[in-house]
Amino acid sequence: MIKGVKMDSHLLKVFVAVAKKGNISQAAIELDCAQSNVTSRIKQLEKNLDIKLFNRVSKGVKLTYEGEKLYPDAVEIIHKLEEAEAKIKNLNKQEILKVSSTQVNAPIRLVPFISKLKKDFPEKKIELYTNTSLLVIDSILNYDVDIGFICGKTEHKDIKILKEFEEELYIVEALNDNIQNCVFTYIDSCIYYIYLASLLRNEGNNDFETVTIENYETILACVELGMGRAILPINLIKKYGYENKLKLKKVDDSNTNFSTCLICRKDNEPNEINYFKNIEL
Q1: Which domains does the chain have, with CATH numbers?
Q2: pLDDT at residue 103 tops 60
């Protein structure tokens, strides 16, 4: 925070929207106001702070060094103000719960999680989002979602682990030995895929091809046909009925961190925190 400077929350909201979108016109759409208004408010905030917040680039705008320093404080200020307004209006019952999850956890953790929530909290509205673990963490840090499922633990100082679920990972291959030198994954930033790729390279296999398919049942079907291998949780393999159709090699988890964690931001704990800490999926 800059001492002696009046911080206008409305200007900060515009600043955060532009920073997130990296584009003034897209921020204007999100804020439901004219592009000229967004531009003028950014100029006003820069004048108030006596610093430049954005540089123009070919596809929009990019935060300056000073803008990057202001951004996390601006996000937190806006959240605190919204939280205070909610309490004043007696809206802090958290009628809406925003939940995010990695794709691999969607069918095996997220679906039964939502099923239990709907049963135990029938009046609560639930909004769902899926993304990579890193982006799930980012969305929680930015207060875009309340809780989320990620692959592996996080040591971020602002993140709280509500519940940890142990995962049994298996490298899966076709039952026959005629297997193509290919690795299937939902996305190549998946920590499971990164582990398998590293394992193969350590074994001297540097020529494998990586194929991304955004459907786990299709990945398992391709593996069964001998088109390559993959690494997946046993719960997912069983869900699609492939536990007896494939060769399964359990991953040694003694030196790995492959548990699934349900997380939230430390200063944005859900009202049902004890419920989430004790939930069984």
Answers
A1: 9-88 (1.10.10.10), 96-163+259-278 (3.40.190.10), 169-250 (3.40.190.10)
A2: yes
Mean pLDDT of all residues in 178-191: 92
- Measured CA to CA, the distance from residue 172 to residue 229 in angstroms comes to 6
Q: How far apart are CA 201 and CA 220, in angstroms?
A: 22
Q: How many residues does the chain have?
A: 281
With beta carbons less than 8 A apart as the criterion, state whether 133 and 152 touch. yes
Whether the CB-CB separation of 51 and 20 falls below 8 Å is answered with no
3-class DSSP assignment, residue 202: helix
Nearest to 159 by CA among 81, 59, 262, 259: 262
Amino acid (one-letter) located at 124: K
Cβ 159 vs Cβ 140: under 8 Å: yes
CA angle 105, 106, 108 (to 5 degrees): 65
Residue 115 Cα to chain centre, angstroms: 21
The secondary structure of residue 229, as a DSSP letter, is: B
Distance (Å, rounded) from C-alpha 255 to C-alpha 244?
27
pTM score of the predicted model: 0.66
Give the pLDDT confidence of 194-241 residue by residue, as tens digits: 999 999 999 999 999 999 999 999 999 999 999 999 999 999 999 999
**Would you give the DSSP letter of residue 62?**
E
Whether 133 contacts 140, CB under 8 Å = no
Q: Give all strands of the β-sheet with 230-233 in edge-to-edge order.
A: 230-233, 169-173, 247-250
Give the type of residue at 15.
Answer: F
